[in-house]
Every structure is written in structure tokens, then in C-alpha cells.
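Quick one, C-alpha cells below:
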């Protein structure tokens, strides 16, 4: 309740300059959500030549866990959409920040969650998830809200903002692991670039002919 009240208040007092956008509900399509965003928010911000869009994603938009594929897919979509918007809206003075919370003390995985029939084959994954929950502390909701409010006051806000005790360490570890993997197989990437310049020249020549 505290989280909901504070977020509603935040949206009201900041409507002309800041908007928090949640991912679409199950009854909404992403296309409809994007159309609503474009029609209701961006034109006003363009006229003002200023504005700040905050899209609520998750640390799960950067880091994945087993059995949460659909959830992660929705959050990865929010990340991609938001990063693209940030590039497109920058010339108009409009900023975009992606909020990436870790675990917080909410009803997210309790009464709000609908569970399917449990398959014994996935028991190791369930144990992994239970251990993960015990190892990563939950954030205090009012503290997380205050962090979001602080970002609103920044003249040059970040594109990505991790909040909550577990979010930033997990994201940094995942990004570091990704970089290490790309570098480990850099030789294969190098092979894929062989003769690229020559092929490009031949393609351009063929187009001219």
C-alpha cells in the first residue's frame, strides 16, 4: 500500500515533466501501450522541449533466472524499447531512465503470483530459486521510492538505474560475465570479419553497375 500510494502521488505531482510507465497489463498489447505513450506523453514533452520518462523494468531485464522466461522476456522488451526511445527523444531534450529494481518487500511472489502444476523434473530449479531468495536481501519499499524521486531531481539522469540491495551487484556480475565471454571467443568474431571490406567494395560496385 505504501508503494502504491507513493507512486500515485509521484505521478500526479510530476505529470508535466516526469512520468513513470509500467509494463502493459496482460490485457494490453505492447503495440497499444506504445501508441498510448506516443499520443499522450511525447507530444507534450516535445512542445515543452523537456521531460523525463521513467520506465519501470527490473533487474530481471538484465539478469535471468530459470523458470521465469516470460517475465524476463517482458522486461528485456522494456529495456530495448526504453533504450531506443532515449536515442530518439534526446534531440528534443527528453530524457529516459529505466528503473531496475531487485527484490523488494512486496506481494509480488506471494498472493499476487499464480503458480502452475509443479513438475518433479524442475525440482532442482525450484531449490535454486529458494536458495536465491534466501541469499539476496529484500529492499525496503519506501527507500526504493526515495531513490527514484532522487533521480528525478538530477539534471543529467542515468539511462539505467538499479535500486534495491541485490540489483546492482547482480547486474554488474552479469555484465562482467558477458564481456568475459565475448572476449574469450574474440578469435571467432575475428574470423567472421575476414574479407569484410573487400566484400563491401564489391557490393557497392555491383550496385553502381
Amino acid at each position: 500500500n505504501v508503494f502504491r500510494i507513493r507512486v500515485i502521488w509521484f505521478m500526479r505531482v510530476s505529470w508535466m515533466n516526469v512520468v513513470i510507465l509500467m509494463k502493459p497489463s496482460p490485457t494490453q498489447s505492447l503495440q497499444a501501450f506504445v501508441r498510448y505513450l506516443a499520443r499522450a506523453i511525447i507530444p507534450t514533452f516535445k512542445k515543452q522541449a523537456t521531460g523525463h520518462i521513467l520506465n519501470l523494468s527490473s533487474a530481471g531485464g538484465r539478469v535471468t533466472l530459470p523458470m521465469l522466461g516470460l517475465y524476463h522476456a517482458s522486461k528485456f522488451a522494456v529495456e530495448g524499447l526504453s533504450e531506443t526511445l532515449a536515442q530518439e527523444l534526446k534531440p528534443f531534450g527528453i530524457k529516459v531512465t529505466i528503473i531496475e529494481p531487485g527484490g523488494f518487500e512486496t506481494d509480488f511472489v506471494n498472493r499476487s503470483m499464480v503458480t502452475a502444476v509443479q513438475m518433479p523434473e524442475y525440482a532442482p530449479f525450484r531449490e535454486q530459486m529458494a536458495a536465491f531468495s534466501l541469499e539476496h536481501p529484500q529492499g525496503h519499499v519506501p527507500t526504493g521510492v526515495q531513490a527514484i524521486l532522487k533521480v528525478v531531481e538530477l539534471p543529467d539522469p542515468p539511462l539505467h538505474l538499479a535500486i534495491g540491495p541485490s540489483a546492482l551487484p547482480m547486474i554488474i556480475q552479469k555484465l562482467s560475465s558477458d564481456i568475459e565471454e565475448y572476449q574469450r571467443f574474440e578469435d571467432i568474431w575475428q574470423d567472421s570479419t575476414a574479407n569484410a571490406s573487400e566484400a563491401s567494395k564489391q557490393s557497392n560496385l555491383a550496385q553502381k553497375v
